[in-house]
Each structure stands twice: as structure tokens, then as C-alpha cells.
Specification:
Number of domains: 1
Radius of gyration: 25 Å
Helix content: 10-25%
Mean pLDDT: 86
Largest sheet: 24 strands, antiparallel, barrel
Strand content: over 45%
Distance between the termini: 40 Å
């Protein structure tokens, strides 16, 4: 009987803040570090939509499948495996606090998970088709964003783009218990035309998705736009995936093979049909996609009538005649599949993806591009595995491309002690290996030209204290963009987190990175490669005054430079205040920020809240003051019929502005006008009906 254990765990209790606020991304630090490494983050809010839905419709842990747990992106592979074995051996959970008894599940993880899960003895019943289409939640979102300048000279730049300076996003979504989803998205970026010129149909980008789960042996059925994730991302991973961060154990790529797509980014997804079928322990996924991509096309000097692709465009901006000329001018046909043998403790999969382009790809005549993809056809193949033995979980993927160039990633997650967890990742990716739509755990943005070894430890010595450390050693055997020789580097991070009670949380983090970088040298013909060091020290504190008010403050310092480069330093300070009165229809937050850096190399990235499902992580540099104010108000209809009471509307307004006291009001370049004299305004309306 588990009752004595459950009673004791409930008696112990957990320090969980019961404050309700709109869902925020779970780990801002992961996104900040990814933005710093890639100089930006993808426009994908799928996870935030999913978590917001689960706040209102929590996942029942007693009926949750392995793919549903992976889809949360809050748990490590070892934690998921331990949970499934615990539930199989001891039966359904009797209380939510029983999670503390599962090996590898610490209080921090459980606190993070609680808003999105529940424990119920209700059996999972497959809904009838009529219920799926008639009893779901409908959401309509309309977002308006604009950059406003007070300078008269700014009017001179408005003719640069063909369209208005406003950005508009519309999204309609229907969701029934995550068993059936469908919706449409329309997006217009700032400067793009709208119902005029090249955009006579309105939005520049349209997206439609229809996604059904648990239809007998059919686990997933995707029609329209969807994402695909296989293995550890060496051949295909389009969903959100993080790399190195202070969450040192979140290193494994995991999630369902197929996921619906309804974000505004117009590159990282497939358009067609996909299906996952499972029969006992065998799971099979197949998909096909036909869609248009944007590319730079150039004429072959030998054959004037033949055009080849010099580069694919991923930004999705079509504001000028030149950008419109490259819009959706290449057709890409993609087909792929995966066969996976699954068990309680293990899995083994075989994966394949093939591409066919209407125009051949031809790499630039540059040494670093020597091994880039060449031709109209490409393919990738891999095998992946995972196995849990007691307190250890091993996993990995071995891949080859069309030319049999190899890539591999192997990982280990282990619970060395109830208070100590270990993570290790080894990757060896040939400089010749190439792939599309991939995203593995690497230092490079794409899995190519890299060898490396990562090791991380998470230690919880006593209640309220946590120590996270990692070390990563990496090498690039071939040249890179602006790096004219083989290079390498190392990165180390130490973070101490202190949470004495539910009102206070603070952490201090030190990060050291040294990486070979091409240096501008007026003497040398070829840019020499020198090790460049970057040091970050950050301290952040969160203080909850009561159930209504929460304060956050951060101080961060950066040191950047090498023996042959000018050294730079950077400093950032901000204070946030969050106000969410209980049982009130409004909430708001505000930030005051000061930044001062020696230049762009010492830039600092800081997460910025805006309206719901939207965020910003801009590069902060130079010397500036900045403020951000976000206000939201939820309109709930008065008492009436049950149907009316299930309808509400959320209005949100975001205003942000930067002041550069030592910059002229107007600079000579158009980008400087935008950077030094602007206000960013966003207005959003979300209408929900259940």
C-alpha cells in the first residue's frame, strides 16, 4: 500500500507559489544563451501556446503517454523513464505530492511542472468524432505592432520599404483536449505590403494546420503545416530545442515525431501530410511535404539559361523589390520516415529524409563552403537509440548523408546520488557532413564540422541550495565563415541558486568562453585566427512581496577581448515589477533598464516580456536607458447563460522605448535612425470561447 508514503509526502509539503499569471516560457536563461550563440532565436511560440492550454486543461499524469511527457519539454529523459517505470510498478499516483518519491525528481522540477499537470483516477476515453469537433476551445488572436519615431528626419526613410511600418499577426485555433487541433495563421512583417502590390491576398504568410491524435492505431495525423523531429536532431529537428544553459541536464532532444505548426516563422516547417501509426511496440512515422522556399538564384556562367541556388533565405522579410524577387522562388519536395521499436526501458529507431529542389544548389566559391550541399537532391539517414538501466539513461544517434559522411551524438544522464545528477554528451560530426532542418546539441548553429565533449553536474547539497556546473570542449576541424583555419575552444559555467522559501529566489552565474575567431589585421593578407575570451557574471533576484506583487532585479557584467583585439566591457542592470491582484481582471509588469557596453562585441542579451505568446531578446549595447510597460485586462461577460460565461477577451498593450543620451537624435544611416530614436508599441486581443 502506498497510502503511508503519500500521507507523509503531503505532510512534508512543498513551497509552491500559488500565484496565477499568464504562462511564460519555462526557462528564459535557455533562450537568452541561445540568442547570444545564434544572434537571435527562431520565431516559434508553439510551446508557450501548449503550456497556456495545459494551465487550463492540465495533463493527467495517470494517463499521460511517453510522447505527451516529452512534449512538455520540462523533464529529462531519465526523469520520464523513471516516472513510467514507477507508474508501471506501483500503479496510478494517489496524490500530486507523490512525485517526490520518484527517483531523479527534485522539488524544483516538480514546482515547475505543477501548473500544467494533475492527478486523476479518470480513465482515458477516446472521444467520439462529434465531440472532438463540437466541444473544443476556440481562440482568436489579433496582434498589431509598430515602431514609432518622433524625429521628422525619420520620414525620409519610410520610402525604403514598399509597405506600412505596422506588423500584424492573426491566428485562429481550435483545440479539443489536444486530441484534435486545427487553425489558420496570417502574418505581415513591418514594411511588407498588405492587400496591395505583391500582397493582394492580404498577409504575406499564411499557415494552416489540422492535427489529430489517438485515432485507434493512428497516434498522430498531420495535414497542412507541421514539424518533424527524429532522433537527436542530426538529420531532422524543426521543433524548439535548446543547447547549453544553466539547466545542465536538459541536453536531450525528445518529443513526438510530428507536431502541429501554427507559428509566424515561414521557414522551419513542412507542408503536406504526416502520420504516426503504432501497433504494440512498433511505431512508424511517414511524411511528405511540398512547399515553396525563398532563395538567392544566380545564373550559371557556363549555361546562361540555368539558375542555381546560392543560398536559402530564412528570415522571411519581403519588404523591398529585391526581397520580393527572391520570394518563394524554389520548390522543395521532402519525404521521410521513421520506424521505431519501443519498450518500457528502451527504444531503437531507423530514420530517413530525402529532398528534391526545383533548382540545384551550388555552394559559393569560398574555402569554408567547400563541402556545402551541391545538386538538386539530398538525403540523410540515421539510427537512434535510448536505454535506461537503474539510475542511468544512455541515448544517441548515428547519421550519414547522401555522400556517406558521418555524424554521431551520444549522451548519458545519470543520478549518482539523490542529490547529484550527471549529464555527458559526446559529438563527432564530420566537416563534410551536411543536412537540412537539423538541430542537434552542438556549439555550431547546425550540426557540421565539430567534435566536442560536454559534461554537466547538478548538485542539491541542502534544502534551498542548488549548484549547476558544466564544461564543454570543442574543436572545428575545417574552416568556418570568417575563420580561415581549423579552430576550437572551451566553455565553462557555474551557477549557484538559493531558494530559502517561496518568496525569495536568487542565483549568481559565472560563464567563461574561449573560441578561435578571425581577427581583422591590416598587415596580414589572411585574417589570423586568435583565441578570443568572453566572460559573463550575472546575479539575479526574485522577491515575492505577497500574492500580488513580485520584484525581479538583475546585474550582469561582460568582459570581451584577446591579445590582438581591443578589449571591451559591458554592464546591464534592470528591475522588473509584476502586479497580479488575485481575482482581479487586470495585471501588468514594468521594467527599468540601464546598459553600457564598449561596443557590439560586449553586447548583453536580456529576456523582455511583451504581450502574451510574444517575447523579445534584443542585443543590448552602447549606452542607453530603456523602459518597458505591459498592461493586460481580461473582460469577462456578466452573469448569464452557461455559454456566455465560457467566453472571455484579453486585451494587452506593450510599450518599450530606449534613450541614448550620448547619441545624436539622428544618424546618417537608416538603421541608426531605427536604433536610436524609436518607441515600440504592441496591441493584442485574444478572444477565447469554450
Amino acid at each position: 500500500m502506498k497510502w503511508p508514503l503519500v500521507i507523509w509526502l503531503v505532510g512534508q509539503g512543498m513551497a509552491v507559489a500559488a500565484q496565477e499569471r499568464p504562462v511564460e516560457p519555462v526557462n528564459e536563461q535557455q533562450l537568452e544563451m541561445q540568442a547570444e550563440r545564434d544572434e537571435g532565436v527562431p520565431e516559434d511560440d508553439t510551446q508557450w501556446q501548449q503550456l497556456a492550454y495545459l494551465q487550463k486543461h492540465p495533463l493527467n499524469l495517470n494517463a499521460a503517454t511517453e510522447n505527451e511527457l516529452k512534449g512538455l519539454r520540462l523533464l529529462t529523459g531519465l526523469q520520464i523513464s523513471n516516472f513510467l517505470m514507477y507508474r508501471q510498478q506501483l500503479g496510478a499516483l494517489l496524490h500530486i505530492y507523490e512525485l517526490q518519491a520518484i527517483p531523479g525528481w527534485d522539488v524544483v522540477t516538480i514546482k515547475q511542472l505543477l501548473p500544467f499537470v494533475t492527478v486523476s483516477d479518470q480513465k482515458t476515453i477516446t472521444a467520439r468524432l462529434g465531440e472532438r469537433f463540437g466541444k473544443g476551445e476556440q481562440t482568436a488572436l489579433l496582434r498589431f505592432a509598430a515602431t514609432v519615431s518622433q524625429a521628422a528626419e525619420h520620414k525620409k526613410t519610410t520610402g525604403t520599404y514598399l509597405g506600412s511600418p505596422a506588423a500584424i499577426l492573426f491566428r485562429y485555433k481550435y483545440n479539443y483536449k489536444n486530441l484534435l487541433q486545427y487553425g489558420v495563421t496570417g502574418d505581415k512583417d513591418a514594411g511588407e505590403q498588405f492587400f496591395e502590390g505583391a500582397q493582394k491576398n492580404g498577409f504575406d504568410f499564411y499557415s494552416f494546420h489540422f492535427f489529430a491524435r489517438k485515432l485507434g492505431n493512428i497516434q498522430s495525423l498531420a495535414i497542412g503545416d507541421f514539424t518533424v523531429g527524429f532522433g537527436q536532431g542530426l538529420i531532422q529537428w524543426q521543433g524548439l530545442a535548446f543547447k547549453k544553459s544553466a539547466s545542465v541536464l536538459m541536453i536531450k532532444r525528445q518529443g513526438p515525431a510530428l507536431q502541429p505548426y501554427n507559428s509566424a516563422g515561414d521557414y522551419n516547417f513542412h507542408r503536406g501530410i504526416g502520420i504516426t501509426v503504432q501497433r504494440k511496440s512498433i511505431q512508424c512515422t511517414l511524411f511528405g511535404s511540398v512547399r515553396k522556399l525563398s532563395a538567392n538564384l544566380e545564373t550559371d556562367s557556363a549555361f546562361a539559361e540555368r539558375e542555381h541556388i546560392s543560398s536559402l533565405l530564412t528570415m522571411g522579410y519581403y519588404r523591398t523589390a529585391a526581397e520580393l524577387n527572391n520570394r518563394y522562388n524554389v520548390q522543395c519536395i521532402t519525404a521521410g520516415g521513421s520506424v521505431k521499436l519501443t519498450g518500457t526501458r528502451s527504444h531503437f529507431g531507423i530514420n530517413a529524409v530525402q529532398y528534391n529542389f526545383s533548382n540545384p544548389l551550388q555552394p559559393a566559391d569560398e574555402p569554408y563552403d567547400r563541402f556545402a550541399i551541391n545538386g538538386s537532391h539530398w538525403s540523410n539517414y540515421s539510427v537512434d537509440y535510448g536505454y535506461t538501466f537503474r539510475n542511468m539513461h544512455v541515448y544517441g544517434e548515428i547519421a550519414v548523408d547522401k555522400l556517406y559522411n558521418k555524424a554521431l551524438v551520444h549522451g548519458l544522464l545519470a543520478s549518482l546520488d539523490p542529490k547529484v545528477d550527471l549529464a555527458v554528451v559526446y559529438r563527432n560530426i564530420s566537416s563534410r557532413y551536411q543536412s537540412f532542418f537539423s538541430n542537434a546539441f552542438t556549439e555550431n548553429r547546425l550540426p557540421v564540422n565539430e567534435n566536442g565533449l560536454y559534461a554537466g553536474l547538478s548538485i542539491r547539497p541542502v534544502h534551498g541550495w542548488k549548484l549547476d556546473v558544466y564544461a564543454d570542449l570543442f574543436r572545428f576541424p575545417w574552416l568556418k565563415y570568417q575563420v580561415n583555419a581549423p579552430s576550437g575552444g572551451q566553455e565553462y559555467l557555474v551557477q549557484v541558486t538559493y531558494t530559502p522559501n517561496k518568496y525569495v529566489e536568487m542565483y549568481s552565474r559565472f560563464r567563461h568562453e574561449t573560441k578561435g575567431t578571425g581577427i581583422n589585421d591590416s598587415v596580414s593578407v589572411i585574417r589570423p585566427v586568435m583565441p578570443v575570451r568572453r566572460l559573463n557574471w550575472r546575479t539575479q533576484m526574485i522577491y515575492r512581496l505577497n500574492r500580488t506583487v513580485e520584484l525581479r532585479s538583475r546585474v550582469e557584467t561582460v568582459w570581451y577581448g584577446s591579445r590582438k583585439t581591443q578589449k571591451e566591457t559591458g554592464f546591464l542592470f534592470y528591475t522588473d515589477v509584476y502586479v497580479k491582484p488575485p481575482l482581479k481582471p487586470f495585471f501588468f509588469n514594468a521594467r527599468f533598464q540601464y546598459v553600457e557596453t564598449g561596443g557590439y562585441n560586449s553586447r548583453i542579451y536580456a529576456w523582455e516580456n511583451t504581450v502574451m505568446y510574444n517575447y523579445s531578446i534584443p542585443a543590448q549595447f552602447d549606452k542607453a536607458l530603456r523602459y518597458i510597460v505591459n498592461i493586460s485586462y481580461r473582460v469577462m461577460p456578466g452573469r448569464g447563460t452557461q455559454r456566455v460565461r465560457k467566453t472571455n477577451c484579453l486585451f494587452s498593450l506593450s510599450l518599450a522605448q530606449s534613450f541614448y543620451p550620448f547619441k545624436p537624435a539622428i544618424e546618417a544611416t537608416e538603421t541608426a535612425v531605427e536604433a536610436y530614436n524609436r518607441s515600440d508599441i504592441k496591441l493584442q486581443i485574444i478572444f477565447t470561447r469554450r
